[in-house]
Amino acid sequence: MEESLTKHSLAHPKEKDECEICEMKDHLCVHTKEKPHVCGVCGKQFNQISSLKIHLRSHKKRKPHVCEVCAKPFSERGSLTAHVRIHRNEKPYVCEVCSKAFTQLCQLKTHLRTHTKEKPYVCEVCSKAFSVKGSLAGHLRTHTKEKPYVCVVCVKAFTERGNLAKHLRTHTKEKPYVCDFCSKAFTQLSNIKKHLRTHTKETPYICEICGKAFAERGNLISHLRIHGNERPYVCEVCSKAFTQLCHLKTHLRTHTKEKPYVCEVCSKAFSVKGSLAGHLRTHTKEKPYVCVVCVKAFTERGNLAKHLRTHTKEKPYVCEVCSKAFTQLGNLKKHLRTHTKETPYICEICGKAFAERGNLIAHLRIHSNEKPYVCEVCGKAFTQSCNLKAHLRTHPKKSLTCVKSVTNHSR
């Protein structure tokens, strides 16, 4: 037996490294996760030169069937036939459930699983299931930390080939997906699909709890957190929690005082992009949101929603302390401070604190000596609107009417 082992050991070249981890030969890269051998064609990395050589054959494979429209080559005629349908916009495979059509039969089969909820591809590590085999392959790399697809421009690595292809367009600036409605171009297919719904007004993602529909799946996922009262995004400064990451990012600007969205007309800055959009309409006088009850128009959708409650008498915001209900969230927040005695708005000049932002703004006018509210009768000016209203009562209505009537009579 010893003689057989000796003969066998001579088959291994002596100059090769011996692995100190498991005492096997010639595979240190497996342990170090080092992949020094990179494919010059697609950027995929390998830990052994032999694996790279095998992979290179996939690029050298003969592809005699070439598309006459875009010159893309294929190794099989069937693949070319399926590809040509993309140019002709031919979709012969139709879903019997929702009538969605596809260019290839395999695409229809994959799509049908969205109806049957079938997920036959299961991860052996964490038991997560997938409807598409390729999705499982990509998921497995999240466990192995393998990122075989490397960008030849900036060396950024990816777990999936498709993600590398998307990333490469950030370098090439290529936008192959063009909207048929407005000709806007996109780097990714998913982005044009989202964009198309702005034209079609399609909202395919529906909440099973309240029936609210959304154009994007991500928005539905965020919405579901409202029902579950789940708030995974927490502010590190004040511990306030949010259902969406974008809400946390917007909130952080209240701490940093950052206002990146600037009006090109008057230079007023905003922390939220939507606020700038609404503000711009004050310059254009555009009021696209119209009440169906009284035809009153608004510059912002949110203001219309608030206004509609004056008709419906709906008060969805209820105080947990005293059960008082409000039509607007802002009013509930103000009211809650009557219970908590919280005064978050502090004057930077004298340190006086206020429960409401409007009261702080009015207070600051005392320091600036600004008096924007002027009496039309006697010209006296005030820092607050309520002070002007109180002052107007000092002018007798009768005398004002008398003056008006005398003037009319003299004419």
TrEMBL record:
Q: Name one Pfam family in it.
A: zf-C2H2
Q: Give the stretches traversing the membrane.
A: none
- The reply to whether Phosphoprotein figures as a keyword in the UniProt entry is no
- Which residue numbers delimit the C2H2-type domain? 37-64, 65-92, 93-120, 121-148, 149-176, 177-204, 205-232, 233-260, 261-288, 289-316, 317-344, 345-372, 373-400
One GO term of the cellular component aspect?
nucleus
List the subcellular locations.
Nucleus
Which GO MF term does the entry hold, naming one? zinc ion binding
Q: Does the keyword Cytoplasm apply?
A: no
Listed GO biological process terms: regulation of DNA-templated transcription
Which residue positions does the secretion signal occupy?
Answer: none
The organism's superkingdom is given as: Eukaryota
Keywords assigned by UniProt, alphabetized: DNA-binding, Metal-binding, Nucleus, Repeat, Transcription, Transcription regulation, Zinc, Zinc-finger
Belongs to which family? Belongs to the krueppel C2H2-type zinc-finger protein family.
Q: What is this protein called?
A: Zinc finger protein 112
**Which organism does this record belong to?**
Araneus ventricosus (Orbweaver spider)
